[in-house]
Amino acid sequence: MSKLNQAKRNAAARAVEYVTSGMLVGLGTGSTAAFAIKLISDRIRLEDLSIQGVPTSRATAQLAVEHGIPVLEDFSHVDLTIDGADEVDGAGRLIKGGGGALTREKIVAAASTREIIIVDETKCVQQLGRFPLPVEITPFGRHYAFKRLKDLGCEVSMRQRNGYPIQTDNGNLIVDCAFNKIVEPARLCDEINVIPGVVENGLFIGLTDLVFVGFKDGHTEAHHISIQKKTGTELLTAKASNPGREARD
Fold this sequence. Notes:
With about 250 residues, this protein is an alpha/beta fold. It has 2 domains: about 5-125 and about 205-245, 3-Layer(aba) Sandwich (Rossmann fold); about 135-200, Alpha-Beta Plaits (2-Layer Sandwich), CATH 3.30.70.260. The chain has 7 helices and 15 strands. It has a 6-stranded mixed sheet with strand order 2-1-3-6-14-15. Helix 1 packs across helix 2. The chain is globular and about 55 Å long.
C-alpha cells in the first residue's frame, strides 16, 4: 500500500472507532470513505457490531453490500456519517463532489448528528477553491445554469466521460466551476443554490464536527470543529509546524 493510501486508511480507522452498535451510519463516497466501509465491515465480522448504513451513492451501496453492511435509503435522521472531502479548511468548510455524489452526500450530512471527515494531508488548504467546485444541475435549461454560474466569476466545464456528459445517480449533470480561490464560501454557496436549474453545489458549510487528517509519515491528527469554527474564519494547515495548536495523535 502506498504511503498516501496508508494515510487515508489511518484517518478512516480513527473515525470508525466512533461507530457503535445500533447506529445508523452515513457511508461516504470516494477512495478514503471506501477504507472506512471496509473497516466497518471488519468490525461487524470480528466484534458482532450491529449497524445499518446509509449510502451516499450507488457505488457506495454496492461496496457496502459486498462487505456485509445492510443499507437503508429511507431515513429522517442519521447518527454518524463518515465521509471524505476534496478540500477542507481550518473552519471545517469543505469542497466535495469530486466523485459526483455531492447532493446525496449533503442530504446525509445535514441529517447527521455528527459528521466526521477523513482526509489525507494533501486535502488540507488555507483557502478553498483550488479544487474546481462541483455543481449538480438539471439537464433541462443547462445552458442557462452555465451562464449564471459564469456570471459568478468562474470558468465552467461540463464533466464528461468518453466525450459524453456524466449523469449523476439522480439523473442530473455535473459542472465543475474553477474559481481558483473562494473568499466567502457561505455567500457563494447561497448565490449558486438560488440559480434555477441548480440542484446542489459542493460547498459544505457548518456541517463538519470532526476532521481526521492522515499523514504520509504515519501519524494522524484530530481537529475538532467548534460552533465558532463552523461559522468563523480560523484556518488550519495540516502541514503546520506547531503540533500543539491542534490535537495530535
